[in-house]
Amino acid sequence: MSAGLRGLLCRAAAVAVVALALPACDGGVVYDEYRPTQIEGWEKNDTLVFDVARLRHGGRYRQEIGLRINALYPFTRLSLLVEQTIEPGHRLAVDTLDCRLYDDKGNVLGDGVSYFQYNFMLSEVDLREGDSLHVCVRHIMKREILPGISDIGLKMVRNR
Prior knowledge:
With 160 residues, this protein is mainly β. It has 1 helix and 11 strands. The strands form 3 sheets. A 5-stranded antiparallel β-sheet has the order 1-11-4-8-7, with no helix packed on it. The chain has a 4-stranded antiparallel β-sheet with strand order 3-9-5-6, with no helix packed on it. A hairpin with a 2-residue loop joins strand 7 (111-112) and strand 8 (115-127). 17% of the residues are buried.
């Protein structure tokens, strides 16, 4: 076998290995979506909705809420109400999530410069193959309109 052909085969094998490894890099993420809030502020009655399609695999899933804010957000915490309906069976789960955004000294706990990204563990849930979810998120702060929140997200990761 010539050196040129051997080099070509080695490169082809390397490309094949990388191509096969790429699907494994998702870390089991089955859903990761963000919804924007109103520019004027997130109103208390403005519910953000996430619909997770039927799952291909049953198992235990970790759920996280993502949050993006800027310096206009006036508080050190954010309280959220998360209602999930699991189909079939219309199983309802309701969680409250207290999101700490700044430490006691006023330092940002999120990542970023002008917009800050946060990820908060919501729950772990056992789901079956074919289950789907309808998830509603709203804030439960005393203030009716919250400025400085740009997006809220839902991420689901299948535990392996």
